[in-house]
Amino acid sequence: MSEMTKKMQEIAREILVKGEAEVVIGWEKGTFWYLSPPAFIDKPEDVQRLVWDDFCHNNLSKYLVDLKNHEGKAAVFVKGCDSRAFNRLLQDKQIAREKVVLIGIPCPGLLDQDKAKELGKNSDLPKAQKCLDCQYPNPLVYDYYLGDKEALNEVAATKEAADYSDVAAIEAMSPDERYDFWTKQYDRCIRCYACRNVCPACSCRECVFDQTRVGWIGKANNSSENQFFALTRAMHVAGRCIECGECERACPMDIPIMLLNKKLVKDINELFGEYDAGIDIEGKLPLGHFDKNDPEEFM
Ligand code: SF4
Ligand code: SF4
Ligand code: SF4
To answer: How many Cβ atoms are within 10 Å of 154's Cβ, its own excluded?
Structure first.
């Protein structure tokens, strides 16, 4: 058992015994060695299920969205990306801060689960792309912290600039080439909604894609409706996407969803100034703030 797993189990036990929270949300080993899905622990004797390993990908803040409909508190383990998602949910008033106990974990970057599946346990596995792109691997907010706080400050000081070269390559295509590229991608979409279900920025109680009334959104699994779905979802999370990459990881059809998300992040930065969602909870939201002096070119 790793030192971090031991620390996780100890803190979870302590929180449950003291009654600081009714449930602790962490990760446990799944059906396969390369999966560590979410675990919901509500008894001290079950804390041994918790693990910290190279596959604790799920963004656990997603599961706090349901908490607003329940009494009581939840404790949740947060890596950098989970903590950014938590901050965004807080800004959207989807979570009450006092109902959550945050346990911060320093994140070294996780491994690519698809490569793990393909290459096997004893191979030298690459990091997941989302972790190679990650600018905030350590938690930005926490009540307990399970790592070394000095190392935390060092990492914060060495944040690197975001790399948009993959987005620039798509921008450089002609409109027809771009259309062909995205058509080929979204023709594979099976509308399973895994990308939505795993996303901490998708927090609407009633999602537009679940509407059954005529005129809302087509349910057919065809080229134009799949692309309409993709663009609508990307626009719905614009300004709230914290770039955790979970949508792309969860997609069973390997659709490069992050290219769409990153394009919107890049455009927002260019149009409204540098903005990383889920970092500054007091700051103005680029797409969530109204100013009477906003230009109205469209009108
Ligand atoms: S995106 Fe960052 S914080 Fe999230 S798992 Fe990867 S390295 Fe860790
Ligand atoms: S859209 Fe994807 S990358 Fe953005 S917050 Fe949702 S799951 Fe994470
Ligand atoms: S997870 Fe992939 S296949 Fe499923 S709806 Fe999203 S884009 Fe389509």
So the answer is: 10
**Residue 194: CB within 6 Å of ligand 3?**
yes
Please name which of 73, 67, 27, 20 lies closest in space to residue 47, comparing C-alpha atoms. Answer: 27
Distance of CA 180 from the midpoint of ligand 2 (Å): 24
CB atoms within 10 A of CB 40: 14
Residue 203: how many other CB atoms lie within 10 Å:
22
Question: Helices 175-186 and 223-236, interaxial angle, to 10°?
Answer: 100
Q: How far is the CA of 31 from the centre of ligand 3 (A)?
A: 22
Ligand nearest to the CA of 36: 1
Determine if ligand 2 sits within 6 Å of the CB of residue 134. no
Q: Can you list the domains of the chain with their CATH numbers?
A: 3-157 (no CATH), 165-272 (1.10.1060)
pLDDT tens-place string over residues 249-293: 999 999 999 999 999 999 999 988 888 999 988 888 888 877 788
Question: Which ligand ends up closest to the CA of 251?
Answer: 3
What's the CA dihedral at 280, 281, 286, 291 to 10 degrees?
Answer: -120
Reported as a single tens digit per residue, the pLDDT across 190-248 is 999 999 999 999 988 888 888 877 777 777 888 888 999 999 999 999 999 999 999 99
267's tokens: 């455009």
Quote the ligand 2 centre to 202 CA distance (angstroms).
8
**Ligand 1 touching residue 56 (CB < 6 A):** no
Ligand closest to CA 130: 1
What are the counts of helices (DSSP H) followed by strands (DSSP E) for the chain?
11, 5
Per DSSP, what are the bridge partners of residue 145? 104
